[in-house]
Amino acid sequence: MAVDKYTLHKDSKSEKWRLEREGSDRAKRVFDTKSEALKDLRGAVGPTGGSVRIRKVDNTIQEERTYPRSKDPKGSPG
Fold first, then answer.
1. Can you tell me whether residue 75 is helix, strand or coil?
2. Taking the CB of the first residue and of the last residue of the chain, which one, N or C, has fewer CB atoms within 10 A?
3. What is the pTM of this model?
């Protein structure tokens, strides 16, 4: 079963952190700070869960997290 994919990144215009579903320009959630976003990622992706790619301010990938952990693909490293 495929999981929903999201990206958390900083919007250069608003200076806020946006959580967006892959293929959508609309934010699912907007946070004032990255630390606030990281604390609430599990709740932000919702009960069905998903994979979140977390980006740094320079837009490089910092890490990727899967919620809940049981949806993490078994063949992926890490």
1. coil
2. N
3. 0.85
Q: What tokens does 50 get?
A: 């998903």
Terminus-to-terminus CA distance in the chain, angstroms?
19
Structure tokens at 65: 């997290």
Residue linked to tokens 């919702």: 46
Closest to 7 (Cα-Cα) out of 26, 27, 21 = 21
Encoded tokens for 71: 């949806």
Render pLDDT for 1-29 as a digit per residue (tens, 0 to 9): 578 999 999 999 999 999 999 999 899 99
Q: Which amino acid is located at 4 in the chain?
A: D
Beta-ladder partners of 5:
51
Report yes or no: 34 and 52 within 8 Å, Cβ to Cβ.
Answer: no
